[in-house]
Amino acid sequence: MAVISGVVVDADGRPVPDARVYLAAGPGSFPDVAALTDDEGRFTLSAGTDGGYTVECRSERGGASQVAGTAVTVRGGSADPVEIRLA
Amino acid sequence: MPIEFHTAVSNEPEEQQVVFTAEELAVQQPSEGPQGDAARATADGLENVRGYNRPEGTPEQLWQPPTAVLPDIGEASFGPPPVAAETVHGPDDRVQITDTSVYPWRVHCSLLITAADNSRWIGTGWFIGPHTLATAGHVVYIKNSGVAGRDGWVKSINVMPGRNGNTLPYGVVTSTSFRTVNGWANNGDENYDYGAIILPSNLGNTTGWFGFGVWSDADLLKTVGNISGYPGDKPAGTQWYDARGVASVGPRKVYYDIDTAGGQSGSSVYHFYNGGRYGIAIHAYGGAVTNSGTRITTPVYNNYVAWKA
Fold it and tell me: Smallest CA–CA separation between A9 and chain B, in Å?
């Protein structure tokens, strides 16, 4: 099982805890859960098969609702860590 | 059919489990609970929700290529991603439910899950009895995560019935008692991805619950599937509803184009029968063109009957 890991940061590069991170697109079916980022903004999601995934996150930190996302490619069962930056 | 895949497993010692021996029933009845008047359905099998209009046409006619444009730093490293599926297909038809203390909306529960490695997740569950919620197997038992220390029974789940953002009309109940089946816990087979959360109180007597039952392929293919749950792509802890016709069925799965997002695993896929609301599947996966849930077949039904005892 491949793991998509990364960190969610704000516009200033500070980690965002409690952001909801989930797969929005992928090459096959995937569990429809969402991870919450830890105190350092980190998350790890599981990806079943190689291919292109879209990882999205949403956070209301600071009172403003923000959504961001990124594309991730899983090859050979692994993917490079990603950084998702909320505007 | 490998019935042993439906053998129930629990995170509790065997002597603490309830053994169900009653005769098999085809349908379990819903309860609307004692508080207030329940929202009524429309004549075509939909919830009567302001602002919601069922899309016209077949699932094939309604599908549109994904149009969402997202900030894409991945393309800088990997190039454009290949064509992929999205859990919101075409126009996003979901509408927010704000009167979540009214039946049926109070049956749906926002879940905060703490996994074995202390990672936290969100999901959805729904009352099927006074102290039992149906949900996805992967909500209560994490399998094949690829992360050290994460797989296995989750540590705890905070259950928030009828949550509406920061408003918790029925408070929070923490459960550490879970159920799933062999086919999920030991085999990781998504055809058996269903489970249950057992509460330490009978809060379902207040919220009410949905019925559930086993229906034929023909019946399911002409029914409207309704889903309400707690997606992570909407404001935190808000409940969202959508409905569409069932697109296709398999022996153990139901497929549909009802819009969902991460956080809605475990939601009820339900329809109306004799004026009541009955689960036909447990939503579990986003996927190519359609999303899908674990179909309530006779073995699934029997386990849920046992787990709600």
Answer: 13
